[in-house]
Amino acid sequence: MRVQLITAPTIEPISLSELKLHLRLDSGSLADNLDESQSLKPDNYVVAGDYVTHVGTGIDVLGYDAIVILNSGTNGASGTVDVKIQESDDDSTYTDWTGGTFTQVTEANDNAIQEKQYTGIKQYIRTVAKVLVAACDFGTTIIRNNPQSAVDDLLNDHIETARGYVEDITKRVLLTSTWDYHLDEFPDENYFELPFGNLQSVTHLKYTDSDGDITTMTVTTEYLVETNGDQYGRIVLPYAETWPSFTAYTSNPIVCRFVCGWTAASLIPTRIRTAVKMIAAKLYESRGDDIIGHMVTEDKFFMNLLASHRLWSEFV
């Protein structure tokens, strides 16, 4: 079968959040997807003209999006607070993170909240503070959002791979995409089938003669389109019409461009979406291991799960 992908699907059979929920990476609630830890606990901090007296607890942020919150209470008379974020690979040796300095807190802007998102690459972060002139009330909190974007990218790759695996089994294209189907000659029958099922539309049917001249056939007068639901679509001759007679070009002389696939993930049958979800989960759970043997042993299960949605015609 000579087919060429022209436009790939823009959505997938399952969403990232659906897969996360299946893997229990997400609880589905905002409260359970976030956690917070104190670095500098809320307190009345005494004067210290350095960043080594008031040192916060290091927090592991590897694999998380992190936001650091400075919650200022009341400053003492003329007191000032300077807070900055530090980062570390080992929770031992810390250095200042560029861009991690908060606006100095004075009596003019105390009793307020400041926040900074940590976008560095170290595993641990903490806050340190310097207090001048008078004791001041404040504290810092680090909020983590799990999981990290790198895991999201990995899961999205697994969803795409799982879709392809299911498409190979069912011989379908699951979601809207555009393809070119090439033939060497018109058939003896008064029709030919298009692959992948769920035909939405035919963009054009063209043929190229030996001189390289391209002719675009006219729908309804020179050919008809049968979408046929979720089965194979067909190009059919109208009554009493015949296929064009021409000397064919040597390479891909006939091309039919068509759009196929379900138009929305919600329209895909549950069994197909379940199979995509299970295969994506297997890929995630087995990452870094040889999963070939596992997939072979489970292939029969997936074949049975998808059997009622498989298309059976062979294309050459």
Cα separation of the termini = 4 Å
Please provide the ordered H/E string of secondary-structure elements.
Answer: EHHEEEEEEEEEEHEEEEEEEHH
Total DSSP helices = 5
Provide the gyration radius in Å. Answer: 31 Å
Content of β-strand: 25-35%
Overall number of structural domains: 2
Shape: elongated
The overall pLDDT average reads 91
Structural class: alpha+beta
Give the total of beta strands.
Answer: 18
Helix proportion? 10-25%
Major sheet: arrangement of strands: 1-12-18-14-15
Uncertain residue segments: none
Summarize the structure.
The chain has 316 residues and is of the alpha+beta class. It is built from 5 helices and 18 strands. It has helices at residues 16-23, 30-33, 149-170, 270-285, 292-306; strands at 3-7, 34-38, 43-45, 54-55, 59-60, 65-75, 80-88, 95-101, 113-118, 124-132, 136-145, 177-183, 191-193, 199-208, 214-216, 224-226, 234-236, 254-260.
How is this fold's topology laid out?
Layout: E1 3-7, H1 16-23, H2 30-33, E2 34-38, E3 43-45, E4 54-55, E5 59-60, E6 65-75, E7 80-88, E8 95-101, E9 113-118, E10 124-132, E11 136-145, H3 149-170, E12 177-183, E13 191-193, E14 199-208, E15 214-216, E16 224-226, E17 234-236, E18 254-260, H4 270-285, H5 292-306
Helix pairs in contact: 3-4, 4-5
